[in-house]
Amino acid sequence: MDIQNINSVPAFTTKDGSEIRELLAHRNSLIKNQSLAEARVAPGLYTQPHYHPLTEEIYYILSGTGEMTIDSETKTVGPGDAVAIAPGAVHTIYNSGRETLLFLCCCAPCYEHHDTILLDENGVEVS
Questions:
Q1: Is 13 in a helix, a strand, or coil?
Q2: Could you give the C-alpha distances from 61 to 6, 78, 94, in angstroms and in order?
Q3: What is the model's pLDDT at position 107?
Q4: Which residues contact 73 (CB under 8 A, 6 or more apart)?
């Protein structure tokens, strides 16, 4: 049986600037084709706009409030909201609240730094 506890997995910062704890992925479990991570964004901060050429994502908001932007559309998100992010969609999430924005991030295939393309404030790719 393959079980990971959030308190036993190390935190790391993704290429977009969010702090995550990867619960299940090929790096620490028998899972090979997807990943599940807990992500945190501090109040007043946001992830750098980015997209994934190959990966589709689901964000599931556990606590806090934020502003989710996908391509040119922005919506307020909070606990219980699930957000679908298609491959190639430019996205960012801003913590508009006073507490840490906490959410689960499911990626298929697994999250990889090399599949994350960062953009600057003008939408130009950053190397």
A1: strand
A2: 16, 6, 12
A3: 97
A4: none
Residue 42 CB: number of other CB atoms within 10 A?
13
- CA-CA distance, 57 to 27, in Å (whole number)? 18
Distance CA 32, CA 94 (A): 30
Q: Residue 74 forms beta bridges with which residues?
A: 69
Fold of 18-113: Jelly Rolls (2.60.120)
Place of tokens 């919506």: 75
Confirm if 58 and 125 have CB atoms less than 8 A apart.
Answer: no
On the CB side of 80, CA atoms within 13 Å amount to 0
Give tens-digit pLDDT for 85-126.
999 999 999 999 999 999 999 999 999 889 999 998 888 998
> Model-level pTM?
0.93
Spatial separation of the C-alpha atoms in residues 44 and 98, rounded to whole Å: 8
Length of the chain: 127
